[in-house]
Write a structure and sequence with these properties.
Length: 238
């Protein structure tokens, strides 16, 4: 509008050209100031909106962090299954577990004894004989090992429980251990390795076969005498 008036004044040739030109510039400046004010207002609103969004994001991040922390604590709970049989390798597997597993995680000590396939049968005299491994001697062995390992747990300030079982086939040990791990939804299975060799023994092979995707931690017996040179190996799937 001011620009049009200035153009008309210039074309008219009257003596008010300079005055009208001043009016044009004043009007133009006022227009630009109003435009700048509008721009600043929009910028302020945009800034306030961004501030609210950032605050919401920070709140959301805090909630996510709390949830993640809670999940980590939950992950540290649960339990682990440790295979024990009284051997130095089993002892070292338990020592490793007591030292490395989170204290919030309970430990189930799995102790198995292989028995013969011969079921209870009657002799010619009519007396009944229990299969090998299912007698008083075996029960005494179970109890002795249980007392020994529970003492190791108590000394370490850990909660442990012992599960005894018998098995009859070569792969029966692994099947029983992994069944227990599945039933308890164990976070991991720990087993000792008697010899520092790349190939697993029969028990370790059976555990790997039946535990599927559950992590299996292999602890070498030599760790007891040379802890720095040979580290425990996680051989299970994650």
């Amino acid at each position: 509008m001011a620009e049009n008036r200035a153009q008309k004044t210039k074309k008219g040739g009257d003596g008010n050209y300079e005055e009208d030109l001043d009016t044009y510039f004043v009007d133009r400046l006022r227009f630009l100031n109003q435009k700048d004010h509008t721009t600043q207002h929009l910028k302020q609103r945009f800034k306030e909106r961004n501030g609210r969004l950032e605050a919401q994001e920070e709140t959301g991040d805090a909630d996510k962090a709390t949830t993640t922390q809670r999940q980590v604590v939950d992950d540290e709970g649960g339990l682990a299954v440790v295979c024990v049989d009284g051997s130095p390798a089993a002892d070292e597997a338990l020592r490793f577990t007591l030292a490395q597993m989170p204290h919030a995680r309970s430990l189930v000590l799995a102790h198995g004894i292989r028995v013969s396939l011969t079921s209870s049968s009657s002799s010619s005299s009519g007396s009944t004989h229990a299969p090998f491994g299912e007698d008083e001697e075996t029960e005494a062995l179970h109890q002795a090992l249980e007392r020994r390992y529970l003492k190791m747990c108590r000394d370490a300030g850990r909660h442990c429980m012992v599960k005894h079982f018998t098995y009859t086939t070569r792969g029966g040990f692994g099947h029983a251990v992994c069944y227990l791990a599945d039933k308890k939804d164990a976070a991991a299975v720990v087993i000792g390795q008697r010899h520092p060799r790349p190939l697993l023994g029969a028990s370790g092979t059976a555990v790997m076969k039946y535990c599927g995707q559950r992590p299996v931690i292999l602890v070498p017996e030599s760790r007891a005498t040379d802890r720095e040179k040979e580290k425990p190996t996680a051989v299970g799937h994650h």
